Amino acid sequence: GYTSDGALFVGNHRTATGIYRSLGAGQPLAPAPGFPGTEGYSILVTPDDVIYVSTVVHGIQRSVDRGDSWENVNAGLPATSCFSLTLGSGGYLFAAIPGAGVYRTVDPVACVLEADRNGDRRVDLSDLAILLADYGCAAGLGGCTGDVDLDGDTDLGDLSWLLGQFGFECD
What is the pTM of this model? Predict the structure, then answer.
């Protein structure tokens, strides 16, 4: 995963020490300081640069300082083994726990505005203008800029979703 300033995080399967990071601009990969364990399976970087890493022995680890320090965030999980993480709609973190299923955080871990079409972390008139300019597009998945609900076209469903988030912004 990448942070917004270009730091790169790379996991491994118990063949080296923990996870590796490069602080960007051609810097070499080096072990992330203080990361527990010898593996990092799934790496997720939220839009506000919080890093989550799944591990087999130490469950889910979180860093809020670009990987300088790590904390365990396994509260509510039935086991400390986690193979996969994803950020879902609304900013909820989903974790795949072997033999136990998929778990979702009680509260969102990130501000996610699906209707933010221009990436400025708020839903406003400029996003509405992008959607309206693209209205009627039916290019398939990934082909329509205004396709908020990811169904392959820009239509009334997208406009409804955008209006539902209109005025929201991430700090």
Answer: 0.73
